[in-house]
């Protein structure tokens, strides 16, 4: 495969020289349709194999290396059928199938919001926002989504890269629209970086060059770019010891995960993105080694090997994967992913079709046995910072010993687990005075959830709706309201139960489980 690709590259240079007059300053590369399909299949297979490999370890190592044995058989790839790494982005592809690639972001959000599967973090907030009439790009904005920097778009932007060989500018146009459904800033950059890795993986096999090229698609001043550059520097410093690089990474970065501030759990896009790069560099192109290292880095250790393995899948092509892995994927080739109309085989076929469309639209050519790709120079996305200087001040819980921190008025009841206060009586209030620049109130999204008014420093801010029962899922201990970027100092937040509900709700309950207070540092 590598020899074949080198021959194609030589032909591409020749073709470029022949078309210089017609396509001035344009680099054009020829890829056989067979090679293109093989690489698309390799990307999807790598995605499936990686998530299946890592899922038993997911969030089992928090701020530490996962050192336990990893029991793996290729047949376990069947697990990928039930993973959000796959089915969420297939929902976006189904949106394209039904409404076209140029469908507005709101339509993509709608199909995500109405899909019959469970969601978490930035994705579930995007779902809630849709049902609360908050649409893109506000649905991913930090004012309405405390998960803006989370990993969600990073793990579901693969399809964009798979269908855009050598076209990072086209990738970023798609990223800008889809990524802001659920993310902002670093969370969007994660999707852009990952998708751009695939775009370059079609063109060459040198992992370091692929990474450096993908970095050009995101702002150099972003923390996401800086953390990846650090991993590269440490790799050069410790080329044979990935654990040293991992420790350097934890020591310098271990960035605050805003939505889970004060916890070891970290679903921040850039930290987990750094683990992907660490695994790719130290994996040295070996599929099994890359899977193991990326998984052992911990935290979201099914998503990260899934992305890393997909990069290698595009580089090597499906035919270049270990034979046992090829056979395992073929065995489930027609099995549908959860709540989608897609299987591995249909994902490859549809991606191929969209790749033809995108190549043609970008001054490329589709011929009988080959495609000519008009290579684009990367252009970085605009700089966005969701949470500038924001860090944890303190985390407050609800329990009998600490209720003195809260000012409670009315008939609030403590739950059996002694972890939440709840009320459904109109006029009941709970308030908290805090010293900082922001606060997140955590509580319940439930099928009998009701409405409440929020006041900050005596000023009404918003009516929140705590009903949530989609895909038979509820959330207890989730951000139900937040406000950031307040002036440093003492502030009071007050929640007043309205005793009202939306039509779908079976009650008017408001549940409070705690609060996170933030401060701002230079």
UniProtKB/TrEMBL annotation:
The lineage's top-level taxon is Bacteria
Question: What InterPro entries does the database record attribute to this sequence?
Answer: Ribosyl_crysJ1, Ribosyl_crysJ1_sf
The protein here is known as ADP-ribosylglycohydrolase family protein
């Amino acid at each position: 495969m590598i020899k074949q690709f080198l021959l194609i590259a030589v032909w591409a240079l020749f073709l470029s020289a022949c078309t210089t007059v017609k396509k001035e300053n344009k680099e054009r590369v020829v890829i056989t349709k067979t090679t293109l399909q093989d690489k698309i299949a390799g990307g999807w297979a790598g995605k499936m194999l990686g998530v299946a490999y890592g899922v038993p370890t997911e969030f089992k190592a928090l701020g530490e290396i996962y050192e336990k044995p990893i029991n793996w058989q290729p047949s376990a790839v069947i697990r990928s059928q039930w993973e959000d790494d796959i089915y969420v982005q297939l929902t976006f592809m189904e949106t394209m199938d039904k409404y076209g690639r140029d469908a507005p972001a709101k339509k993509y959000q709608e199909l995500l919001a109405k899909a019959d599967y469970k969601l978490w973090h930035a994705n579930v907030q995007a779902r809630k926002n849709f049902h609360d009439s908050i649409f893109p790009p506000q649905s991913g904005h930090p004012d309405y989504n405390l998960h803006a920097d989370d990993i969600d778009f990073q793990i579901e932007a693969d399809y964009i890269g798979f269908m855009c060989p050598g076209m990072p500018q086209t990738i970023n146009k798609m990223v800008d629209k889809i990524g802001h459904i659920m993310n902002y800033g670093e969370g969007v950059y994660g999707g852009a970086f990952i998708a751009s890795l695939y775009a370059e993986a079609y063109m060459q096999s040198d992992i370091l060059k692929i990474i450096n090229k993908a970095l050009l698609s995101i702002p150099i001043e972003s923390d996401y770019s800086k953390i990846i550059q650090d991993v590269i520097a440490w790799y050069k410093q410790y080329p044979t010891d990935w654990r040293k690089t991992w420790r350097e990474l934890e020591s310098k970065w271990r960035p605050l995960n805003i939505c889970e501030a004060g916890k070891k759990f970290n679903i921040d896009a850039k930290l987990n993105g750094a683990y992907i790069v660490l695994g790719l560099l130290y994996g040295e192109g070996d599929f099994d080694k890359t899977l193991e290292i990326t998984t052992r880095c911990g935290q979201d250790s099914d998503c990260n090997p899934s992305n890393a393995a997909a990069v290698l899948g595009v580089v090597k092509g499906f035919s270049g994967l270990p034979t046992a892995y090829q056979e395992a994927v073929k065995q489930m080739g027609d099995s549908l992913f959860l709540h989608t109309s897609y299987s591995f085989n249909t994902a490859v076929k549809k991606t191929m079709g969209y790749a033809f469309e995108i190549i043609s639209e970008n001054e490329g050519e589709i011929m009988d046995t080959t495609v000519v790709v008009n290579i684009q120079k990367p252009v970085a996305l605009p700089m966005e910072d969701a949470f500038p200087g924001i860090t944890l001040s303190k985390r407050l819980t609800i329990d009998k010993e600490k209720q003195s921190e809260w000012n409670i008025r009315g008939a609030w009841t403590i739950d059996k687990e002694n972890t939440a206060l709840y009320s459904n009586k109109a006029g009941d209030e709970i308030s908290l005075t805090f010293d900082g620049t922001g606060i997140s109130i955590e509580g319940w999204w439930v099928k009998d959830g009701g409405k409440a008014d929020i006041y900050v420093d005596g000023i009404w801010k918003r009516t929140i709706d705590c009903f949530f029962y989609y895909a038979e899922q509820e959330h207890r201990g989730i951000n139900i309201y937040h406000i950031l970027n307040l002036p440093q100092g003492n502030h009071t937040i007050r929640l007043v139960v309205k005793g009202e509900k939306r039509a779908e709700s079976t009650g008017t309950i408001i549940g409070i489980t705690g609060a996170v207070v933030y401060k701002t540092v230079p």
